[in-house]
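Page 47, continued from p. 46.
Same chain as before, 712 aa.
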Amino acid sequence: MVGRWRLFRHEAGLQAGPPPWSYVLLFALSQLIGFWSVNTFGAVTVWLSNGILAAALLQLHRRPAVMVVTACFTLNLFWNIIRGDPGVFLWLNALMNLCEAALVAMLARRFCGAALDMRRPQRFFRFTLIAAVGVAVVACVGFALAAVLRPMTLTVLLFKMQSFFVVELVGLLLVTPILLLFARSHRFRGLTRAGSMEKVALMTLMTGVTAMVFWQETSPVLFLVFPPMLVIALRLSPTMTAASLMVLAAVSGVATLTGHGPIQLARLTNISGLEGVPAMLSRLGLYNLFLLTAVVTVLPLCTVMSERRRLEARLRARTLIAQEARRRAEDAGAARARFLAMMSHEMRTPLNGVAGFADLLAAREGLDPDAVRQARKIRESSDGLLMLVEDILDFARGDDAIAPEPLDLASVAREAATPSRMAAEAHGVELLIDSRLPEAARFAADRRALRQALHPLIANAVKFTAKGRVVVRLDRAADGVAIRVIDTGPGIPAAALPGLFEVFSQGDASIRRNHSGAGLGLALAARHARRLGGRIEVQSRLDEGSVFTLHLPFARLPDAEIAPAPEEATVNAAVEEGRPPRVLVVDDHPVNREVARIMLEALGCDVVEVCDGVDAVEAAGGAIFDLVLMDVRMPRMDGLEATRRIRGLPGEFGTQAIVAMTADAMPEDVASCLAAGMNAHMAKPISQVGLHQAVARAVSGELPPAQVAAAA
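Result:
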């Protein structure tokens, strides 16, 4: 982030760091240390005052910053007077310090950003370059004036400029970033991995090694200082690392000025023109290079590790948030699944009574033709309501994963067309399946998704076709398979085609429309087509009909072996042999039991009724039934547990055919029924045709085998 050209902190920004008086106190202390160092040793190792002043300008608002600058400038003049600086040099020294701090602060605010966040290594290196530029500019201007006022040789001038540059730069890099890091120490809480004992041990180790290295004059072991400093940078926070650098500078500086340490072992080259320069001043250049190397090595490494720990902590926090969000999403998905299953069950249960009794009324002998027609209308209406319910639940359900299996596509098309056959017969419309695929051909496809894509197309074609026929044609295509639903209906206006597959979209949404519907069918068909990797194309002409083409990229699998079709088993055949099928009806709802009983008795079956799973297990354990029609949701014991109990009965009692007759019709419900040991699943509302097929298959042994191992 790039800031603006501003000397003081913006008034809208929060003031950071210590209070203003502390900067004045630190400045006075640094001046005192410098005065003592010059008087005692004739030199200073590091000039800290300008770094403190720059930090104050960066942290404080205008008013307190002006007060601090004024106080520090006054203190600087005071120490210059005590030091005995003559005339103009008294002012020149103080002005150079002030200008250097102001220039560095202004450049840092402009190019390091208003936040001055030294946790970023690139910002620290940027500040290093800024400090070098600021010190160089002030050194050139200041020493040019000094050379005019007090002439000196070029060699001495360059040496003094070099000494000034290094001392000032090290001071700025040692103090300003450290004070900025201390001002934002709250950002590093909780990021360090070291405990209190480790912190004390590392600081003690660093201090001891530094003292050992710098308070001896026999071995040039300056490199020994870096290992403990690097460990501190890797393990501790930036504030602790900054404190260790200050300790390092204090211990090594005092030792060097008193003539101890590896710096004293350096061999100096005599340079012409610098004979009068004390050897200590020449050696301080090497010492300052050591300090500069320590600062630019340790601080960036520490900030990198701190930033890494901060990012790791943020990643852990976001991971926990993501895991919690995932858990909530899974809970919401499970709640939605439970809600959809419950709604499907609760809506199908009353429809079972409506549709069942309508079928019974329409089949009653001697009934008035108008009454028969009205009963069939009731059945049609219940079928229409059931279709609407299934569409809404299917739309709310979302997309399941595709599970391809070898399929006979013509068989799936017949399944998809079965719910629409009664409506087609009522309209006098012929519904045909025209498969031009080889009879043995098998394709990799998801049965449920394909059926859900085809069913709305066929149902819509039947609903809108008043006369003629609806043909479902299956054929090969360049990209796989093409299934066309062709009708002779009224056609679709061109203006309605673009939004035909949108949710709740209808070709005629006016209050004068002739056909009912919620506008979900085609949207669901398009969605399931996309799930299968295909698409739907529409061609339509008004008053001539429409063609919906379902393009599906199904892969061809090895052909299946076609066995001779067995003779169709019927209930009547069993009755004629003198053994009426025995059927156990298990349902807690009396209306459902009555509907099933009347339909089964009309087929010649011997029916036994029970109202829950406990009675079902008892009945199945006492007699052999050709078929058990098992509801799932029941009091005392549900149908799944009852099935498992029956499968655990000895001998033939445990092998009786069990078919789920339930309003739980979601895919997972079917899977649960089969996993519990049932042979098949039949969703409510039931029909006499469906019951006839179930009983016939049970009597002839054509029901799929039960998953006994799963149920055990």
